[in-house]
Design brief:
Layout lengths: L1 H19 L4 H8 L8 H20 L21 H17 L3 H7 L5 H21 L10
Helix pairs in contact: 2-4, 5-6
Length: 144
């Protein structure tokens, strides 16, 4: 049952990315290019996402536990440190250079562009390098 729910949520997310244009790197790059042909439409997509997330979190955290798990799994770290800032900067640089963030890049695989495959190869290489540098070669789902 959890698989079906996760599949449907992922499908809805992917459809939303395609409809909003987030899976089109040219649209994303035009949003990030303030000095060129700036396209503010993705700001509305982001604002809509923030509103939905704000309301969703308020509703979900009123529940004693999630629908498909025994407990909520929330991050334990709450402070901003150098590692977080560096990771955010690397994420932003990758997004700006490639025109993708991870979710839309996976959705864009269906478009069949070679540039998407190159971006994903670089992204997964970066994931592996970050784990090696951090000394955490344990799969993400198995961390304590």
């Amino acid at each position: 049952m959890a698989f079906v729910a996760n599949f449907l949520i992922g499908l809805l997310f992917g459809i939303g990315l395609v409809v909003s244009g987030m899976s089109n790197p040219a649209k994303v790059l035009n949003f990030l290019d303030l000095a060129g042909p700036w396209d503010p439409s993705l700001a509305f997509v982001m604002a809509g996402a923030v509103i939905v997330a704000f309301i969703g979190y308020r509703i979900v955290f009123r529940r004693p536990r999630p629908l498909a798990a025994e407990e909520f799994h929330l991050p334990k770290a709450t402070r901003v440190d150098g590692r977080l800032v560096a990771g955010a900067a690397i994420f932003g640089i990758g997004w700006g250079l490639g025109g993708y963030c991870p979710g839309p890049a996976l959705v864009a695989l269906g478009l069949g562009n070679l540039s998407t495959w190159v971006f994903l190869a670089a992204m997964f290489s970066g994931f592996a390098a970050a784990r090696k540098l951090a000394g955490t070669l344990v799969p993400a789902g198995r961390r304590a």
